[in-house]
Design brief:
The chain has 386 residues and is α/β, with parallel strands linked by helices. The chain has one domain. Helix content is 32%, strand content 25%. The chain is built from eleven helices and 18 strands. The strands form four sheets. A ten-stranded mixed β-sheet has the order 5-4-2-6-9-18-17-16-13-14, sandwiched between helices. It has a four-stranded antiparallel β-sheet with strand order 12-11-10-15, with helices on both faces. Strands 1-3 form a two-stranded parallel ribbon. A hairpin with a 2-residue loop joins strand 11 and strand 12. Helix 2 crosses helix 11. The longest helix has 25 residues. The termini are far apart.
Length: 386
């Protein structure tokens, strides 16, 4: 055999051997039984991005369902909106909590995570329909049974994780009020989103209904073209453009040194998904969102009773087993096949994200995955779980 061919075969063998060994090491790790109720009502496609990265973390950490002793499935192990095959027929199923199930769910599960309660709307489900800000709801919003399960889980000191849009539109006013009261927080009613371009003609631009909403409110034309952040309320819009209102357009999540060490987090990471603005009340603030505003940006925010710094992650201060994430944290497009590789975190930097501070993939690997892992580890170390 020629030497170059032999070298090539050896290199290929090593490349195949490394992931095989890593998989074997993952498979023989000690399993950690934990039963988690996952709720995701926003699943307009089969990729299930709204909760897939959370099940990735459970799988990679060798967390398994207590009774079945198997890894979590993003396809099967959740409640909410379930698209059915074939997708072209646009059929779906609603998997809701029944009132008669709530006590058993609270007794038999260790944790719950509401990754998204927004829902699926006509324009999301039937592709090709002209987009508007809102269309007819097919399914979504936090309902009374969702709220009651939270109550029962908290009564039992179980781990409760809630995320962006838990109590905002389209959740009804009563459920929103009760949920805010249960969590000890108050929503400001504003949500935000970073855009690479505020130009509606750009591939990464804002949706076409935003300029119309802006013109209606301000009686001015939409002239924004750079990167920026758009904040939305029921009948209000604020546009923060890089160069005018923002020194840097990317929102950042800042964590103090003590909490960064406790949860294994970086002191700063950028964030490109949606977020909401809340008043944390008496809750512990683990991390904060920071908009890098100019004086013009501060003035614009102040005119709407807002500030450039607001909570990103809060924790209930007594039992410390209830968390609210003020961003769409679980929505990350991660190659799921890597979940079954031990120590994937070590090679992720070379393969799955870069050193570029503006790389949005850094959020999952540097912040979200360590945060969830630390929360579950701390919970089980404190006597929670199986």
């Amino acid at each position: 055999m020629k030497k170059p061919l032999l070298i090539t075969l050896l290199v290929l063998a090593v490349l195949l051997l490394i992931p095989a060994v890593s998989f074997i090491r993952w498979a023989f790790q000690e399993k950690k039984p934990v039963d988690v109720v996952i709720l995701d009502k926003t699943v307009p496609t089969l990729d299930r991005l709204g909760h897939r990265s959370f099940t990735y973390i459970l799988t990679n950490g060798r967390y398994v369902r207590g009774e079945k002793d198997g890894s979590y499935s993003a396809k099967k192990d959740y409640y909410g909106f379930e698209p059915l095959r074939p997708v072209r027929e646009k059929q779906f199923r609603k998997k809701d909590f029944r009132l008669t199930e709530l006590i058993d769910l609270a007794e038999n599960n260790d944790a719950m995570y509401y990754t998204d309660t927004y829902g699926v709307f006509f324009n999301d489900w039937y592709q090709g329909i002209k987009k508007t800000r809102r269309s007819r709801k097919l399914y979504g919003g936090l309902n009374n049974n969702d709220y009651l399960l939270m109550v029962e889980m908290k009564k039992r000191d179980k781990l409760v994780l809630l995320e962006y849009n838990t109590f905002d539109y389209p959740t009804a006013g009563l459920e929103r009020f009760k949920t805010e009261e249960l969590l000890g927080i108050a929503s400001k009613g504003w949500m935000g989103q970073y855009y690479k371009s505020l130009d509606t003609t750009s591939q990464h631009g804002v949706p076409s209904w935003m300029p119309a909403m802006y013109r209606k409110q301000y009686r001015e034309p939409w002239t924004f073209t750079r990167a920026g952040v758009v904040l939305l309320k029921e009948n209000g819009i604020i546009v923060l453009e890089e160069g005018m209102h923002l020194e840097s357009s990317l929102p950042a999540i800042i964590t103090g040194a003590t909490e960064a060490e406790r949860f294994g987090l970086p002191e700063k990471v950028t964030f490109t998904n949606s977020f909401d603005i809340i008043d944390p009340g008496q809750n512990n603030v683990i991390s904060e969102f920071v908009l890098n505003t100019t004086s013009a940006g501060d003035t614009l925010l102040a005119a709407n009773d807002l500030k450039a710094v607001f909570p990103a992650v809060i924790q209930e201060p007594l039992a410390q087993r209830t968390y609210y994430f003020s961003g769409d944290f679980a929505n990350n497009d991660i190659p799921f096949w890597t979940a079954r590789i031990k120590n994937i975190q070590k090679s992720a930097k070379a393969l799955l994200y870069s050193d570029n501070q503006d790389d949005p993939r850094r959020f999952f690997w540097l912040y979200y995955k360590p945060l969830i892992t630390s929360i579950f580890s701390e919970y089980q170390a404190g006597g929670g779980g199986k």
